[in-house]
Amino acid sequence: MIIAERKPFNEIMEMVRDAKRILVLGCRGCVTICSAGGEREVEILASLIRLGKQKAGQPVETIEATLVRQCDKEYIDSIDQWDGQYDAIVSMACGVGVNFIANLRPMAKVYPGVNTSSFGGSAEQGVWSEQCAGCGNCILHLTGGLCPVARCAKSLFNGPCGGSVDGRCEIHKDVPCIWQSIHDKMVRTDNADGLAVIAPIRDWSTSGHGGPRKTIRPDLTV
Amino acid sequence: MPFIPNIQAFCCHYTSQQTLAEGPEGLLADGFPKNVTIHRLVCTGKLEVSTLLKAFEDGADGVYVAGCPVDQCHNLMGSQRAAKRVGAIKKALTELGVEPERIEMYHLERGFHPEFVKVAQEMHERITTLGPSPFQGGTK
User: Fold this and answer.
1) Which residues of B touch A60 (CB under 8 A)?
2) Taking CB atoms and an 8 Å cutoff, what residues of chain A touch B103?
């Protein structure tokens, strides 16, 4: 899922400084799962905005809503039901949602309520860790299913850098050296020979270095 | 006219048994401040952050939560979860430029104990010293 975290409250308040009617818009997708921008977080942020405005002696009205997703036009269309009822939208979806609203509703003032950080998973309750960099050319079949692009601090392709100690990355002892994990996994699964294969120089154009990426599926386009 | 703070207390079933045993009059006779409103819950772990924020929106000058001892919650981790949520609101109040002491978590022995009255008096004194909430009664 896409991992996000609510922005510092004062940053959000600065964005909506001049707004008197605010639509706080959550998303039932990834940001609900990582407790950053779902229905519950919408309720909390709207309450904080009201309290912040009350403290400043500024009148405010909030509308609280949560869309099924903010990354599909069909769901964005549903915000039209609040047309004329808000001065600004604070989207609590990932950056995709904010962009989609900005794309599809050119006149709307839309602000991000969260910082979008990574593609990851829930390591334990309240802890999320990055697992995938979305680089567009997956090599997990060569690395025991463990990603050196996302999980190696240097995104190395041909083994560890030499700075790891006791299986821990040199950037921080809490970070496992993913190349140690890859080595252990490959050995454990009788695939140690695969470690000797040298990965060629990589074409990073699929990773956004060739500009914004677009995926087109002719079999699905209408 | 002296400031009498509006204090909202969210207490679990087990820590607030005194309210059942003594009733409102008995509590007042024990010194429980009249301006503290008790909301009884099955468990403080059920409390939502938004419920506590709403109390401030509705005019509370101070809010506190009374749950079981940290490692002896009737529902295992309910009071620990409540303490985390109170911590989140302390952080939010700080971000809002409001004293985080306006909300507090208390872990009390379950059953009939004088601490139940004592923490109410403590919050009453604390909030009286802090003064009225900087949040003005507002509209949604």
Assistant:
1) 138
2) none
Contacts 24+ apart (CB under 8 A), A179-185: A179/A148, A179/A152, A181/A144, A181/A146, A182/A143, A182/A144, A182/A146, A182/A148, A183/A159, A185/A144, A185/A145, A185/A146
ipTM of the assembly?
A: 0.91
Range of the domain at B48: 7-129
**Percent of chain B, pLDDT > 70?**
96
Best interface-test mutation with B: which of A11, A41, A48, A49 has the largest number of B CBs within 10 A? A48
Distance CA A133, CA A93 (A): 19
Domain assignment present for residue B134? The answer is no
Spans in chain A with pLDDT lower than 50: none
Chain B nearest CA to A47, separation (Å): 7
Count up the domains in chain B and report the number. Answer: 1
Select from B49, B95, B136 the Cβ nearest to the Cβ of A10: B95
CATH number at residue B120: 3.40.50
Residue B69 scores a pLDDT above 70 = yes
> What's the rounded Cα separation, in Å, for the pair B28 and B37?
12
pTM of the model: 0.92
Chain B contact present for A40, CB below 8 A: yes
Q: CATH homologous superfamily for A2-118? A: Response regulator (3.40.50.2300)
The greatest distance separating any two alpha carbons of chain A, rounded to the nearest whole angstrom, comes to: 69
**What token pair was written down for A28?**
């039932």
Q: Is residue B2 part of a domain?
A: no
Do the chains contact at A51 and B97, CB–CB below 8 Å? Answer: no
- pLDDT value of position B21: 82
| Domain parsing of chain A, residue ranges | 2-118, 133-201
Residue of B nearest to A47 (CA): B53
Q: Which residues of chain A lie closer than 8 angstroms to B50, CB-CB?
A: 40, 43-44, 47
